[in-house]
Design a protein that fits this description.
Elements (H helix, E strand, L loop, with lengths): L4 H24 L7 H15 L20 H21 L1 H19 L5
Protein name: Nitrous oxide-stimulated promoter family protein
Organism: Lawsonibacter faecis
InterPro entries: Uncharacterised_YgbA (IPR020483)
Length: 116
């Protein structure tokens, strides 16, 4: 069953929310909510996701051929991913495993191979 673009958009937005929250808590000591810088980054990412024209065909922003993030925001979101990615398995294991499986399946499909 294929996902609708809107459902994929919501799932990607939720993943970004979880990762930015984990990053902010770990790096800025914010126990609830986000600091102003992380709130701005999340808002920027949410805006990009909302306007993404490739949502039906791509899996995640990292797999997209179009770089719609400004360079400084791209570096910030990469820092968030580098920090939060490995920690997601401990804090949000279901979301982390789902994210990993979707990414692997898309890569396998793209390469015409099988999922390994």
């Amino acid at each position: 069953m294929a996902k609708t673009a809107e459902r994929k958009r919501q799932e990607e937005l939720e993943m970004i929310r979880l990762m930015v929250g984990l990053y902010c808590r770990g790096n800025h000591g914010k126990q609830s909510g986000l600091c102003p810088g992380c709130e701005a980054l999340y808002g920027y990412a949410a805006g990009r996701i909302a306007r993404c024209p490739h949502m039906e065909t791509k899996t995640f922003c990292s797999a997209c051929k179009t770089h719609c993030y400004r360079p400084e925001m791209r570096e910030q979101i990469r820092a968030v991913m580098r920090y939060a990615g490995p920690r997601m398995l401990f804090h949000h294991p279901v979301a982390a495993v789902k994210h990993l499986l979707v990414g692997r399946a898309a890569k396998s499909k793209k390469e015409g191979g099988r999922l390994v």
